[in-house]
Amino acid sequence: MTAKSLLRGLLYAVLLLAALFFLAPLYVMLVTAFKDAEEIRSGNLLSLPSALNFDAWRAAWGSACTGTDCRGLQPFFMNSVVMVFPAVLISTLWGAVNGYVLSLWKFKGSDVLFGFMLFGVFMPFQVVLLPMSQVLGWLGISSSIGGLIFVHCLAGLAGTTLFFRNYYAAVPKELVNAARIDGAGFWRIFFRIIVPLSTPIVMVTLIWQFTNIWNDFLFGVAFSGADSKPVTVGLNNMVNTSSSVKSYNVDMAAALIAGLPTMLIYVLAGQYFVKGLTAGAVKG
Amino acid sequence: MKSSFENTLPKLVIAPGFVLGFAFIYGLMVWNGVLSVTASRMLPNYDEFVGLEQYVKLWEMDRWWLALKNLGIFSVLYVGGAMLIGMALAILLDQKIRAEGWLRTIYLYPMALSFIVTGTAWKWMLNPSLGLEKLMHDLGWASFSFDWLVQGETAIYCVVIAGIWQSAGFAMALFLAGLRGIDDSIIKAAQIDGASLPRIYWRIILPILRPVVFSTIMVLSHLSIKSFDLIMALTGGGPGFATDVPATFMYVMSFTRGQIGLGAASATMMLATVAAIVVPYLYSELRSKPHDR
């Protein structure tokens, strides 16, 4: 009995230790963001700030410099906001229609087509960077938020198609057949029967796409211009701006601001996020 | 008449998306291949065909070899570390733990954050004079020194630490889902037969989890080959080229060094590596699952 409770205690100790390891960076970011420069020098990573000092947050949002541009993270954050909503909505809708056809209106060769599409989920995007920047130039949308939206829609298409196809594969075919006998057509079935059934997978896909697109750095750094850099690029440039004095408190506040939207979503709708992760990881 | 229209309509509806999607995936892939056999430098130059010259040049570069070596170190330790920690946490969490929901949330939240955000945080913690080192000094360990991030030989291990921190929870989530899918009666039967718990895990549960383990390796290793953000945020590829990997190499050559042909060649090599891992996997996944009901 005592051996068992000892083991139990050990189990909890290990789990708590792991939790501390995962929480440490968040804790460090938070306490650092509330300190001033003097406190950072005199204290250490874990020491608490003496008071809730919002100066670093204000600077990170509105006045910290990236090179010679001293408008803080705000313009980059807004670029990300403007970029993420259309990109998420379009790629989700697009994936829904694709998935609908590929699971309920299968035709000869549709599985093969899907198989080829699936490789897009794994493809290293480095391979499209160079040609894509030329395409964006020809379309007249290089270095613009529109260009980034376009790229994110294309890059996300394989993933969103995969989600919806797998989900719709579980819809009973009899439901669709019965509707067809009643005279319902392709779109009518989609909007009247399929869409109302789709809330869970729509949530998963929206959250998955939001997280991916908000967190993207590669496309942002390769395809954005001075006025269209997303928040990840802004943050990276701000932190790596060489200046004589490093403001770690401002860096940490900026990192927290950049991470806030996805963290909020994770806290509010974590289960959908986890479903997206596992659905994306485990097969087609 | 109507029925034949009804039959082509689905194809018509997805055609534009598939054409664009395939152009994006395969069209640009081929295009990148074309660029890699041209003499393109600052700008694409399709007139000067140089065959495999860029590839020869690539494989003669010390920096490319270093990038590959770094990728090797990073991939093995990152995939292995995240799997081991993830598996351990999943098994421990599966022992009817109170507050399991909370713990899961904590273990997994790094996955929701951008690598740029977490790279920034780790860069501060691993800072040689102010970060972890200062903390240890304050705790009374005066001789503690931790300057891995700025040392050429050790900086890559800092990337590994941050990478594992980011992804271990993801592995845990997958393993936990797998463990929860196992029928309890199998374990009960083994217990009645007198098998110890470690033995049950090793001989019964792990073999059942093999497909999940395999998927996790797949996903983590393709992530490690693509990893770019974390390195850019944490080390920028430095000190020197000490933490360069193919993804950062490709970016630097293509966008800052004006070596487009060489950048395209390195992207092709990345593609080949991912394809070698993923294509057999996708093929077996799609074949083994009959989709017609």
UniProtKB/TrEMBL annotation, chain A:
Its main location: membrane. One of its GO terms (cellular component) is plasma membrane. It holds the Pfam family BPD_transp_1. Keywords: Membrane, Transmembrane, Transmembrane helix, Transport. GO terms for biological process: transmembrane transport. PROSITE patterns: ABC_TM1. SUPFAM superfamilies: MetI-like. Residues 77-269 form the ABC transmembrane type-1 domain. The chain crosses the membrane at residues 12-34, 81-105, 112-133, 145-168, 189-210, 252-274. It is found in: Cell membrane. It is a multi-pass membrane protein. Signal peptide: none annotated. Belongs to the binding-protein-dependent transport system permease family. This is Sugar ABC transporter permease. It comes from Rhodoferax koreensis.
TrEMBL record, chain B:
The chain crosses the membrane at residues 12-34, 71-93, 105-125, 154-179, 200-225, 260-283. GO terms for biological process: transmembrane transport. Belongs to the binding-protein-dependent transport system permease family. It is a multi-pass membrane protein. It is found in: Cell membrane. Pfam families: BPD_transp_1. InterPro entries: ABC_transporter_permease, MetI-like, MetI-like_sf. Its main location: membrane. This is ABC transporter permease. PANTHER family: ABC TRANSPORTER PERMEASE PROTEIN. Residues 68-283 form the ABC transmembrane type-1 domain. One of its GO terms (cellular component) is plasma membrane. The keyword Hydrolase does not apply. Keywords: Cell membrane, Membrane, Transmembrane, Transmembrane helix, Transport.
